[in-house]
Structures are given as structure tokens and as C-alpha cells.
Amino acid sequence: MQVRPTVFTGDVVTMDPALPRAGALAVADDTILAVGEAGALTEAFPGARVEELEGTVVPGLVDSHLHLQWTGLKLLRLLGSAGPLDVDEALAALDADGDAAVWPDGEPTLDERVAAIARGQELALALGLTGVVDPAVTPPELVGYVEARRRGVLTLRVVAMPHVLPGADHRFDALGLRTGFGDDVLRLGPVKIYYDGQGRAGTALLRAPWPASGTHGVRLVDQETFRRLALRCARARWGVGVHVVGGAGIGEVLEAFAAVDAAAPIAGLGFTLIHAYLEPTSEDMALAARLGVTVAAQPAIQWMNGGGLLDALGDRARDAAPLRDWLDAGVVVGGGSDGPYFPLDPRLGLYQARTRRVRGAADPVGPGQALDGQAALGLYTRGSAAVAGDARRGVLAAGSRADLAVWSVDPTACAPDELLGARVLRTVVGGQTVGRMASDG
Q1: Looking at the whole model, is its pTM more than 0.85?
Q2: Residue 169: its pLDDT value, please?
């Protein structure tokens, strides 16, 4: 049976360079049929239902690094599961909880995992997120996602990255599964590997020592073991997402990727640097661009850690989280949060990317790395969709998925401070309204 199209009219920011602004889009099922002006589309689709949207329509946001199931478990512990979730209360509770335990009573049951997914999803959708990449999924967590999908609970599009321990015989390719296996709601992403430590702990692997410890940081896997694992993944057509923070680690990971690429091309597989915010070089950036390696970046980490990094590294930390340089080098960068341990609110992420403000500092840190409104929104739309491996997301164009969010402000043109108080009036996934932060009347 043919589905009656809907024409949504309003102020549309498409993120499509061929047609940056529009007045309407026509949708049927999961797909955008056409984008243009309202009159032309209502004529092109006679009998379509016409719905006027107040505010500014943007592509549904994608968080390229959000532990959704952990977020939901925290919300259940902090606020319970009864009644609708208050967005401001939920964000405040998560931020106040910080690094406290996700779930205090041991391994959650399957029902608790499904409930957690539903609760975390409720918050994400209310914030205009239509998809997430969950970046370190264990087998029990994957079972939780599969069960949530089976029960019809899962509305948010989730890319689950299996967590792999180098040196262990995981046989993660034994069943013939690969990056991309699944459907348009739940899909396997690249495998996740940890290469070095953390910036805030002073353990990221740097080329010059950390002043306080006199060490270069830590390497969590030796270079040859990492190279062999990455090659095995490339030959099996798995992507590889690597937690790597410091410049020395970034260089070593990219050198390994280049060696792997010479034996088994990695372009299009989803080879990604996760974090990559401390002292990458211009040579690192050029190599990443040549190899087609993406970067999953988290402005919220710079917001939280920027002041501490200045204390630890001095001027070396001025240009930490060099989003402008990565983009100028031609590298695809996806915006994310690393929630729930860092603020997962994309409004804060957009604000930080544009202002370079950090918590507790009077002045911006590294203002030369600031992005304009269009580039900042691009992190969470086209960039994150690319990190998620879905070319049909992150842009409002004919043939794209009908995922969109309606904001009370134009996030590309408003003053940065307005982002923090902006409201998401409606979130649409696959043409269906599934979340809102405030009524759009």
C-alpha cells in the first residue's frame, strides 16, 4: 500500500551544499522524497498531508560517542523509571553524579537493560538526537540492544561498537559478522580498541613528557599486536575505532593504519580515531585525510578538561581539541559527548565548538580552533553520520532518511549563548515524531 506523503513546511537548514536552505521537505515512510519550496512541493505531491513546523528544522543530530545503555542505567538509578523524563532534571542529575558507578548492584538483568535503553533513548530524543554510536559494547550490552529491538522499544538509531581486548581470542569474526551487520535501527559498528590513557589522568601517550610525572603516558597495547589486530580486521572487513588521546599514540595508530592499508585497503571500513585531542601534528592530520580515517571528537571533554590541561601542560594545551585544524586538513570529524561521564547535551557541544570556552576559565582557550555555526552543526550531522557509517543521515536531501529535529533557534545563525537555552520542539525519526523537549503547539 502506498503511503500518503507528508510535506513539512518551515525554515529548513539542510546541511546539503547543493541547497543549503529550503522552505519544505516531502516525506514518505523513512525517506525524504524532495526538498524545496512549500508551494512547489505541495503541487508536486497532490493529496499530501501538509504540516507547518515552527522554529528551525535541521537534520537529526547523531552523537558519535555516547554510552547510551550506561546513560540509561544511571538515569534509572538516579531518577527511577516512573513518569515522563524531565530533561533539565535528568541532565543535572547526570552531571552531578559524575564518575559514580553506573549500576551499584552488579550485572543488570535483561529487563533492566531494556528499561535503561528506553530511558536513555527518551533523553537523547528530547535533545534532538536521532542516532548514537555506542562506543564500547560488551556481549551483555549487545544482547540488551537486540532485545530492545525485538520488543519494539528501540526507536533511536544505534550503531554498537563491540569492545575487543587485544591478544584475546575473541573470534569476533567467526560467525561472518562484519561492521554494518544489522538493520536501519540497530547495526554493528567498528570494533573498539583502547590504545592509550586519558588526558585528565595525565596518561595519554605524548611525544614530550608530562611535566608532573616525567613520563610520556601509557601505551595499553604494544604496536605490533595492534598492527596485527587492525590488519585482521581490515581483511575481515571490520572497521576499527581506536581510543587514542595523545600525539605519540595518534602517530603510532596512524602509522599502523597506513601499513594495514598497504596490505588491505581501509577506505570506507570505518577506521576512526576516538578523542585524538592532545598534540596531533599536521603530518598526522594529512595522513588521516589520505587514508580516509575519521575522527570522533567530543567538545564536552574540552569543556570539562580544558582548564586542567592548561594547568598540567601550560601553553602546550592551548590548541587541545583542534577541530578547526582537523577539518581544514580534510578530515571528517564527528561530534559527540562521551556521555554519561561528560555532559551529553549537544547544545553544550555546539556552544563549546563555537566559543572554545572551558569550565572555570575566564577566557576562551585556543580561540583559533573555534568553528562557525555551520561547521559546528556539521560535526553533529554530516560528520557524525559519516562516523556512524550511514551516508543517508546528517543531511536533508532527496533519498536521505527522514530524521530531523525542530529547534526554537537556528543553531547555525544564533548567537552561541542562545544555544544553551534553545529548546528542541520536535524530534522525528523515520518520518515519525518520537520526542520533544517542549510543546510546539
Answers
A1: yes
A2: 46
